[in-house]
Amino acid sequence: MSMSDELKAIINSTLDLPPMPLVANRIVSLTSDPDTDAKILGRAILADQALTANILRIANSSFYGCIRSINNIASAIVLIGFKGIKALVVAASLKSFYRRVDLTEKMLWEHSIGAAVTAHLLSKKLHCYTEEAFVGGLIHDIGKSILNNQKNEIFAEIMQTSYNNGLPFVEIEKEFLGFTHAELGGVIIRKWNLSTTLEKAVTYHHNLEDIDSSDIDIQKFTALLDLTNKICAYLGIGYRQPKEDINFEEQRSVQILGAGGLDFVDLIEEIKAGYEAEKGNF
User: Fold this and answer.
1) Which residue of 93, 164, 255, 270 shows the fewest CB atoms closer than 10 Å?
2) For residue range 108-139, what is the model confidence (pLDDT) as tens digits?
3) CA separation (Å) from 86 to 7, 71, 138, 245?
């Protein structure tokens, strides 16, 4: 049995992985189909009133910078685009997995939104992966939420052990579970039939060195998620306290992305403002 098969066997034997909600799954499929037009996509969205309202609210937010009011789904699709709609549908779907009303779940959700906003803004600065970046940031830690919901006592112990001993979270996960939230996230993304790029980037976002350097696009996307995570950690978004000792110029992800010329002081302030402005929309 290969390592990937073994990992799937462990996860499938211990976790009931959720399917993506029916309407969301249809919309994700439609946005990936070259034969889909805006009318077909619009009808699929309108089948879910809550989703429709959510997309219209975000289309009118500063996140997309539209200077006129967007009051129908057809206009929202034109403004946001198919990939953007896919990102928002995934965002709306994920809220159903953040079911626990404890502090941990609140922090996980805040971190997901913070990472989505960070990845979106960062990718615009670097002129790459804008819509896919949003989804990647949003979904990169979905494995943590699933573990918190279905293996709550073990997950809490992992968090406490990592925090008390100052050890990497994924290292403690390996010790307690035999796999990490990142690997679990990759399995979920595959089950949801999202892109291979997303699957690999989420799986390896804590292990850049394990990505095949010959696959430049996936390596850069994974580096984008790694850098996004570190910026959120620096700001304390979804963490107990900010990790202000991070030196961004020394990060391997910065080197891979060719982002050494970025002014990280200004960038981090822009991301902080963007997160505060947009977190209530998701």
Assistant:
1) 164
2) 888 988 998 899 889 888 887 666 788 889 88
3) 28, 19, 12, 35
CA distance 207 to 205: 6
pLDDT in tens, 27-61: 888 988 889 999 999 999 998 888 888 888 877 77
Contacts for 93 with CB less than 8 Å, ≥ 6 apart = 20, 21, 24
Enumerate residues 6+ apart whose C-beta is below 8 A from 15.
Answer: 146, 147, 150, 151, 184
Distance CA 226, CA 210 (A): 13
Check if the beta carbon of residue 112 is closer than 8 Å to that of residue 221: no
Q: What's at 28, amino acid-wise?
A: V
Query: What is the distance between the alpha carbons of residues 161 and 158, in angstroms, rounded to a whole number?
Result: 5
pTM over 0.90: no
| Closest alpha carbon to 58 in 34, 31, 80 | 80
Q: Positive or negative, the Cα torsion across 61, 62, 66, 68?
A: positive
Q: Mind listing the domains of the chain with CATH numbers? A: 3-281 (1.10.3210.10)
In the three-class reduction of DSSP (H, G, I as helix; E, B as strand; rest coil), residue 123 is classed as helix
Tell me the CA distances in angstroms from 236 to 223, 230, 240, 268, 277, one per residue in order.
20, 10, 7, 12, 16
How much is the CA Rg of the chain, to the nearest whole Å? 18
Please tell me the distance from the alpha carbon of residue 57 to that of residue 192, in angstroms, as a whole number. Answer: 25
